[in-house]
Design goal:
The structure is a homodimer of 280-residue chains. Chain A is of the alpha/beta class and 280 residues long. Chain A is built from eleven helices and eleven strands. In chain A, the strands form three sheets. The first copy, chain A, has a seven-stranded mixed beta sheet with strand order 5-2-1-6-7-11-10, sandwiched between helices. In chain A, helix 1 crosses helix 2, helix 5 runs parallel beside helix 7 and helix 5 packs parallel to helix 11.
Chain lengths: 280, 280
């Protein structure tokens, strides 16, 4: 694999690769690959752009727990892992076995909670349904989020992941968002629910449901590395959305369909309220 | 885990869960859970919607190969796995070890190529960079795609995954798309490159780069289950995109930045052309 990466990066062609070029450099750096990567001139061209901080040393901890929603996490992971020099850890209670998402797709952790650095730049919680409620009831998980979050410059989530932040006591007095069907439950944790795609309140950055992870992550990258870096990654991901069917929010979906979906999800706030009895 | 799902689904509350409700039912069905799920009335309410085919028995085979781009696959997986009754398989050469993506995040296959059903409803290839070129050069991988694709009602890809379809001989005379930096390479395989988000030509459905997987998947769901089903899943995923920075295509990105990104990716078509010497 190192050989492959050297081919990508080391040749005369300099910064040479398709989409995940910045990313591959980043992975290489994480794995102890030696700088400089690519030709100095190509490097300087990017580094000289306005609003573009090419290098950094952020430590990102992304929580995995059983029956999380994989897309909540994988979209932000794409953008975070493309920040050159950043270290992105997938953290689970146990390191050596894959963590099943709510749709069956299982992802390998890269480190255990016990191994996770004490100080991280950013802690991230993905959402889910029953799995998220179970995570809210798991002391080791919530203690981990509360501890790293107590010191982290950024406390973040996508979808119902914000409920775990709330359970960990990190949302008191904060404006925040969640999946549309769970947003009001944020009040249980002393937060003010906000119906926006990405909500920033000091060091707390929360995204709305599932697919909001793309917009959330670009907002985080813009904050950490500049708007130019985020624009580069938006182009790399060819993120020019064109949903082929209407909707996307309860307000823009066919009313009959929106009502059925909303009814279907009605019991969830009850489960959250019960779990919130254990909140920090 | 079965216990959890039964709690979600079996109680008086009927179709009761947050986002992945349809999905959880689906996973349950795949795992041998017995229908009917939820109350009959709630069921009927959905089933009676226009353009909404609640049940199906599609067999979806999603290819995993080393250094694929995880987001290319995980977004479509979300939507495919939420089609009730569909079976979604993650297929790799070896079943028992995680497949590393190009950004380090590793996903567990659910079956080996050898185990994959002979007849599938849909074959899907994710993209990548060097990993995709390596996959194009791997006989077992390309033979698998060519074989299942020869009979599948739908042959699909996101990002540079279309190059694997091309290598397998499945794009001859077809209109198709790919990541913007790789689109022209489709000509090597007898295809006509099209600069659109999702391109459908008969049974071939291809999506543009990385994030196009969301739009691609909704288009596929609309085709398989109706526009109403796709709209329901769009709402479930809260897919109301609001990218917080400009761009997303070479044409809409800051020209200096777009030029640098384009230059960075220039060598890729050369690698593809070399690999295409082995095309079917």
């Amino acid at each position: 694999m190192n050989g492959t990466r050297r081919t990508l990066i080391g040749g005369a062609a300099a910064l040479a690769a398709l989409a995940p070029l910045l990313a591959l450099q980043n992975v290489m750096a994480q794995n102890g690959g030696s700088a400089p990567v690519g030709s100095q001139s190509a490097h300087d061209a990017f580094a000289g752009l306005p609003n573009f901080k090419m290098h950094g040393d952020e430590v990102v901890a992304m929580l995995l727990y059983p029956e999380f929603t994989a897309l909540d996490l994988v979209a932000p992971h794409y953008f975070f892992a493309c920040m050159m020099g950043a270290k992105v850890h997938l953290v689970a209670k146990q390191k050596d076995k894959p963590v099943p998402s709510d749709l069956g797709l299982a992802i390998m952790p890269t480190m255990s909670i016990a191994e996770c650095p004490r100080d991280v730049s950013l802690i991230f919680c993905p959402g889910g349904t029953q799995g998220t409620v179970n995570a809210m009831l798991d002391d080791e998980t919530v203690d981990f989020v509360a501890d790293r979050g107590s010191r982290a410059p950024f406390i973040t989530s996508v979808c119902t992941g914000s409920l775990i932040l709330g359970q960990a006591g990190l949302l008191k007095g904060k404006r925040a968002t969640s999946h549309w069907a769970a947003r009001d439950s944020l009040k249980l944790f002393g937060a003010t629910p906000v119906n926006e795609r990405v909500v920033t309140d000091g060091r707390v950055i929360t995204g709305a449901g599932v697919s909001a992870g793309l917009d959330f992550a670009l907002a985080v990258v813009a904050k950490l590395r500049g708007v130019g870096y985020a624009e580069a990654l938006r182009l790399q991901a060819e993120y020019a959305p064109q949903p082929p069917v209407p909707g996307g929010t309860p307000e823009t979906t066919d009313p009959q369909l929106a009502k059925l979906m909303s009814d279907m999800l009605l019991p969830f706030p009850g489960w959250v309220a019960k779990a919130a009895e254990k909140k920090r």
